[in-house]
Amino acid sequence: MKKITQEQQVIETMRREGGYATFRRLNEIVDFSTWKTKTPEASIRRIVQDSKMFFKIQPGLWALEECKDEVLCKFELKIGNKQSEEMFSHGYYQGLLIEIGKFRHQTTYVPAQDQNRKFIGQRLGDISDTTELPSFTYEELLRKAKTIDVIWFNERNMPSDFYEVEHTTDIKNSLSKFYELQDFHAGFYIVADESRRREYEDKLHVSMFSPIEKRVKFLDYDRITKMYEGMTKVNDSIW
Asked: Is residue 1 part of a domain?
């Protein structure tokens, strides 16, 4: 009987998942029992990234070439269509932040207008804890907070972290929201591609944002993805 290769094993596992999977999911369900390696997660990553049998959708999310049309249709993603790619990317990183927040035992919020955005085939409204903003402050400030992409709340229903995903939109708008919410003991994060870091720094380091300059942090997409993949060994120092 011909021995199945590690690559074939990963392919069959992904087929059973519908033709796509995150690295985190593959690490959970691939049977490593016959693999002679101490780092099977690294082996899976190498197999998927090096093989022509797979294609990359987002950092940490891959699919089988043989299922490409089916998977892209499921995700409502049109490669080469800027608006479609932006919608998918925005929902993807919102979803990762929701999952990380839930793992950290935070209550997760996304705006009601984003509840139908998709995260790997699921509605954000179905995976987040709420789309209704808790009444944690004055109405004027709640109006500012309710449009923020992802908020984590602690056990006292107070905001602990505010996240704005900036794929192509103006970073200044997000910084303005953080400025209005500066009196809360919470973290402020801009989540974007590494290529936007310089733009972020240029817009943050202006006089009007000096009160929050040292509080806002930039998290690139790869860092968010690695955080999601490593949730079993999460620790607060990573942020």
From this structure: no
Phi-psi region of 76 (alpha: psi -120 to 50; beta: other; left: phi over 0): left
Domain that holds residue 66: 6-74
Q: How many domains does the chain have?
A: 2
CATH number of the domain where residue 21 is located = 1.10.10
Q: Which helix (H) or strand (E) holds 109?
A: strand 107-109
Strand-pair partners of 189 = 163, 217
Note the helical H segments in the chain. Answer: 6-16, 23-29, 40-50, 68-74, 82-103, 124-127, 139-145, 171-180, 197-204, 221-229
Q: Give the Cα separation of 215 and 146 in Å (integer).
A: 20
**DSSP per residue over 67-99, as a string?**
GHHHHHHHTT--TT-HHHHHHHHHHHHHHHHHH
239 residues of the chain, pLDDT tens digit each = 567 899 999 999 999 999 999 999 999 999 988 898 889 899 999 999 999 999 999 999 999 999 999 999 999 999 889 999 999 999 999 999 999 999 999 999 999 999 999 999 899 999 999 999 999 999 999 999 999 999 999 999 999 999 999 998 899 999 999 999 999 999 999 999 999 999 999 999 999 999 999 999 999 999 999 999 988 654 544 45
Tokens representing residue 115 in the block: 């509840």
Q: Record the tokens describing residue 67, joined without a space.
A: 């299922």
pTM score, whole prediction: 0.91
